[in-house]
Amino acid sequence: MRRPRVITHNTISVDGRLAVSPRTLLMRDERWPSGAEGYRDLMRRHRPQVLLEGSGSLVTDDQRPRILPATDRPVSALARDHLPDEVVARATAGWFVVPDSRGRVRWTHREFPGTEMAGWHLLVLVATATPPSYLAYLRREGVPYLVCGRHHVDLTAALKVLRARFAVETVVATGGARLGGALLRAGLIDEIETEVVPIAVGGTRTAAMFTATDLDRTAQPTRLRCIGAEQRPHGRVLLRYAVDTDRSLSSE
């Protein structure tokens, strides 16, 4: 079964940081330079059917989510894909997909507010080990989910399911360090796109791109090929690199 093409997109400091401080959500930090075009720019250039975001971009590790009530529904009934027909029918433009096997995010929006991204609907990726109370919560809130993996979300399987069920051809992953690192180590990235902003952050605990297990002495880094460099307003530079692998193998 083939998977979609995956492009990672991150806005980073010149030293590769994704935020200004540890445990800080970028969307709430006024210290980060403004001027990004956001999703509209990504939609115009890549025309994805899925925007993939990490749960760490929505809640920090030290943030304690609201406790959910226990459920008496059997796990066997909850730990199966939940794709209500009426929700799938509303996702006419695409899916905003978030892996959350630990069940940490409490959702405010199921669909993008406003008219510019009408037809985009939330879809959560979970595992069979995801707390049943969270799966019951998603069902009560009308949030569809796919069960992909046992103890954590299997991103390879999830991408293949997205292609098979929804004919997804292109995924743009805008997630943070851990989601990017998981995609990198799994060999699931076809293109890496970074928009560099004119600040330097430094630090030892502030999130950087592609947090993943360290390579051992014999492992090779992911080879890249530059396919674009564009100077943008507000001192920004957009860099694009293709992963230098055999496409016939990377899309299996």
Question: Would you summarize the structure shown here?
Answer:
With 252 residues, this protein is α/β, with parallel strands linked by helices. It is 21% helix and 21% strand. It holds the Pfam family RibD_C.
Report on the architecture of this protein.
Keywords: NADP, Oxidoreductase. This protein is of the alpha/beta class. It has 2 domains: 1-22 and 174-252, Dihydrofolate Reductase, subunit A (3-Layer(aba) Sandwich), CATH 3.40.430; 50-60 and 69-168, Dihydrofolate Reductase, subunit A. 21% of the residues lie in helices and 21% in strands. It is built from 7 helices and 9 strands; from the N terminus they run E-H-E-H-H-E-E-H-E-H-E-H-E-E-E-H. Strands 5-4-3-2-6-1-7-9-8 form a 9-stranded mixed sheet. The chain is globular and about 55 Å long. 31% of the residues are buried.
* Major sheet: arrangement of strands: 5-4-3-2-6-1-7-9-8
If you average the pLDDT, what whole number results? 92
Number of domains: 2
CATH class descriptor name of the largest domain: Alpha Beta
Helical content band: 10-25%
Assembly type: single chain
In CATH, the homologous superfamily of the largest domain goes by the name Dihydrofolate Reductase, subunit A
Number of distinct beta strands: 9
- Second CATH tier, the architecture of the largest domain: 3-Layer(aba) Sandwich
Q: pLDDT below 50 for ≥5 consecutive residues: which ranges?
A: 247-252
Largest sheet: 9 strands, mixed
Query: What is the 3D form?
Result: globular
Class computed from helices, strands and strand pairing: alpha/beta
Strand portion, in percent?
15-25%
- Quote the CATH topology of the largest domain: Dihydrofolate Reductase, subunit A
N-to-C series of helices and strands = EHEHHEEHEHEHEEEH
Distance between the termini: 6 Å
Count of DSSP-assigned helices: 7
CA radius of gyration: 18 Å
Protein name: Dihydrofolate reductase family protein
Pfam family, one: RibD_C
Domain Bacterial bifunctional deaminase-reductase C-terminal: 4-235
Keywords: NADP, Oxidoreductase
